[in-house]
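Subject: design request, 248 residues
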């Protein structure tokens, strides 16, 4: 099995201040204090439960993802490998400009109507962004085949993983919308049956570790926590899946 755990960064200033700078690598102001707390709660959970045992840690170099990775990584005791292909969609020349100024200078393209138009010169369009993400996921799955990889990344990258692994169209915005939570865990697992490799979504938007923020007591995480992928599947009906072998 190849296991990819995609973790979104904690709450960033760019998530809460819509008047701030365009948050590419240059304009990214990093995590808010609340975002750091979210990352610390994730670190404490993973250090206690041992539910993820990675072989490799990869992280985006955008400050909000990098800071999240640096907070959480001690839970695993592994060195971080920084990979720019884990970036959120790159804005180009608008990076770092106040959002209102960027829109006044470059416009505000509707990616649903103009999927091939970048936000500003040197930036990525929707189509080039999803191509990069698809190539990155394919590369990571091949280079680290049979291993468990944790990727500290961004909401757009995680959302695009659904399009890639479900074989959906990537040149246009999908009709379905995703809402990936800060510091949530998304787990994709790749197995092979009769020579055919298949991806399976094990869990999405697992952010249980932040649910006790502001509560009187913290969640007491058990050691040797049984992660969802370790549970035996028991379909209510015999469906034509690779597990049941039906429908052949």
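Subject: RE: design request

Done. Sequence follows.
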């Amino acid at each position: 099995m190849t296991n990819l755990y995609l973790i979104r960064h904690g709450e960033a200033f760019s998530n809460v201040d819509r008047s701030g700078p365009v948050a590419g690598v240059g304009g990214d102001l990093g995590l808010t204090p609340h975002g750091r707390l979210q990352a610390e709660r994730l670190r404490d959970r993973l250090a206690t439960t041992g539910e993820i045992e990675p072989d490799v840690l990869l992280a985006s170099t955008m400050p909000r993802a990098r800071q999240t990775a640096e907070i959480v990584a001690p839970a695993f005791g592994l060195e971080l490998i920084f990979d720019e292909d884990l970036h959120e969609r790159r804005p180009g020349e608008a990076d770092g400009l106040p959002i209102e100024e960027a829109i006044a200078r470059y416009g505000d393209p509707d990616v649903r109507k103009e999927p091939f138009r970048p936000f500003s010169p040197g930036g990525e369009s929707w189509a080039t962004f999803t191509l990069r993400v698809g190539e990155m996921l394919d590369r990571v799955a091949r280079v680290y085949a049979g291993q468990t990889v944790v990727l500290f990344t961004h909401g757009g990258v995680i959302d695009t993983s659904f399009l890639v692994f479900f074989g959906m169209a990537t040149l246009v915005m999908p009709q379905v919308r995703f809402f990936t939570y800060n510091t949530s865990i998304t787990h994709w697992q790749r197995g092979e049956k009769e020579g055919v490799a298949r991806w399976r979504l094990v869990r999405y938007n697992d952010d249980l570790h932040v649910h006790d923020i502001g509560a009187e007591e913290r969640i007491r995480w058990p050691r040797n926590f049984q992660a969802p992928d370790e549970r035996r599947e028991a379909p209510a009906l015999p469906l034509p899946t690779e597990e049941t072998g039906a429908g052949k």
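The longest helix spans residues 126-143.
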